[in-house]
Amino acid sequence: MIKYVALYKQPADPEAFEKAYFESHKPLIDKVPGLVRQEIGKVTRTFVPGFLEGSEPYLIAELYFESKDAMKAAFASPEWQVSGANLTEIGGMELVAMFSAEVVE
């Protein structure tokens, strides 16, 4: 299994960002083919500050896929493209670092 992780910094207007994220972006991600599950966590405490160069983590989205190939296929899908455009529209691309991680245990 592999997961795609999106780590968001604190937005200028957290309430507006969350509303846009949960009402428009998350439902689009739910439609991405090959997605096994999606977990979203709101950071409640940072134990070692400073990792994000003066901005603390705010939201973590983890998208799970069965394999690297399944994730690659998802990235090539129209649903993924639409979700990326939406993230840009709601201002999320300016806040996010994205990476993948192989689930080893």
Question: Can you characterise this structure?
Answer:
The protein is α+β, with helices and mostly antiparallel strands. 35% of the residues lie in helices and 30% in strands. It has a 4-stranded antiparallel beta sheet with strand order 2-3-1-4. Helix 1 packs antiparallel against helix 3. The longest helix has 17 residues. The model has no long low-confidence stretch (mean pLDDT 93).
Task: State the gist of this model.
This protein has helices at 14-30, 68-75, 78-89; strands spanning 2-9, 35-42, 57-65, 96-102.
Give a topology summary.
Layout: E1 2-9, H1 14-30, E2 35-42, E3 57-65, H2 68-75, H3 78-89, E4 96-102
Helix pairs in contact: 1-3
Organism: Actinophytocola glycyrrhizae
Protein name: EthD family reductase
Domain EthD: 9-81
Low-confidence stretches: none
| H/E element sequence | EHEEHHE
Strand-residue fraction? 25-35%
Helix content: 25-40%
Cα radius of gyration in angstroms: 14 Å
Walk across the major sheet and give the strand order: 2-3-1-4
InterPro entries: Dimeric_a/b-barrel, EthD_dom
Domain EthD: 9-81
Pfam families: EthD
Protein name: EthD family reductase
